[in-house]
Amino acid sequence: MNKIGIIGAMEIEVETLKSHMQITNTLERASMTFLEGSLQGIPTVIVRSGIGKVNAGICVQILADIFQATHIINTGVAGSLNAAIDIGDIVVSTDTLYHDVDATGFGYPLGEIPQLGTLTFTADAEMIARARTSCETVNPDIKVFEGRIVSGDQFISDPQVKDTILANFPGSCCTEMEGAAIAHASWLNHIPFVIIRAISDKADDSAHMDYPAFEKAAAEHSARLVEHMVQHL
Ligand code: ADE
C-alpha cells in the first residue's frame, strides 16, 4: 500500500495540508513533528522539515526508516531562474542538483558530490506526469513548467549570484534550499520522488520585497496541487 511522505520546509508550505488531514498518529523525531494519517483518504505523513539541505535529508531518512514512505513529495516555494517563469507559476522537477557543491579541485564537475556517481537526481516520471495533470485540474489558470530545480544553502537575492548559478547550470528553472537534498536522500533509499515549487520571487534584487508578498499565495498553489495529486498515485 502507498504511503506518501509530504515535506515542506516551512510551516506556511504545509499548514493547509495539515488542516485537511485526518491525523491518527504524531511522532517527534529530530525536532520535527511527523503527522501520520490520511489526506483525501490516502495514507500520508506530513512534516515540516525546517529550512536547508541537512534538515531536508534527515527528514527523508526518517520518512524512509520509521514510516516506510513509498513516495516523497516536496511542496513549497522557489525563486525563478527563468524570465518566462513568473511569480505564482509552478515548477515540477525533472531533476535536481546542488548549485553550491564544489569539488572541482578534486576533479569532479561543479555540483557533484565526490564518489556518489551522479551529478543530478532524476524525479519519478509518473509522479511528474501526475503533478502536471493535477495542476491543470486544480490550478487551470496557473502555468506549469517541468525542468531542473537547483538547491543550495543560500537564499538567492543578488542578480550576480543568480547569473553565476545560471552560467554554471544553464536552463535551470528555479532555485530553493531543500529540493536536491530531498531528491538525494530519496535516491539513496530508492524512493520515487518529485519536487513541486511555486514561484515566490525572481531570485534577484527584488526577492527581498517579492518573497514576503507572494510567499503565502505561492505556497498555497503548490499545496493545492499536492492534495489533488496524492489521490492519483
Ligand atoms: N525560496 C524561495 N525563494 C528563494 C530564493 N530566492 N532563493 C532560495 N530559496 C528560495
Query: Can you list the ligands bound to this structure?
Result: adenine
**Largest beta-sheet details:** 5 strands, mixed, barrel
Tell me the name of the CATH homologous superfamily: Nucleoside phosphorylase domain
CATH topology: Rossmann fold
How many domains in all? Answer: 1
Backbone structural class: alpha/beta
Helix content: 25-40%
Strand content: 25-35%
CATH class: Alpha Beta
> Globular, elongated, flat, extended or rod-shaped: what is the shape?
globular
Q: Give the overall average pLDDT.
A: 97
- Give the quaternary arrangement of the chains: single chain
Instruction: Order the strands across the largest sheet as they lie in space.
Output: 5-9-8-6-10
Would you report the number of β strands? Answer: 10
Q: Which residue ranges are poorly predicted, with pLDDT under 50 across at least 5 consecutive positions?
A: none
CATH architecture: 3-Layer(aba) Sandwich
Report the C-alpha radius of gyration, rounded: 16 Å
H/E topology pattern: EHEEEHEEEHEHEHEH
**Ends apart, CA distance between termini:** 11 Å
Secondary structure tally, helices: 6
Could you please describe the fold and organization of this structure?
A hairpin with a 2-residue loop joins strand 2 and strand 3. The chain starts with a strand and ends with a helix. 34% of the residues lie in helices and 30% in strands. It contains 6 helices and 10 strands, in the order E-H-E-E-E-H-E-E-E-H-E-H-E-H-E-H. The protein has a single domain, classed as Rossmann fold (3-Layer(aba) Sandwich), CATH 3.40.50.1580. The mean pLDDT is 97. A 5-stranded mixed β-barrel has the order 5-9-8-6-10, surrounded by 4 helices. Helix 1 runs parallel beside helix 6. The longest helix has 23 residues. The protein has 233 residues and is of the alpha/beta class. The structure holds adenine. Adenine binds next to strand 5, strand 9, strand 10 and helix 6.
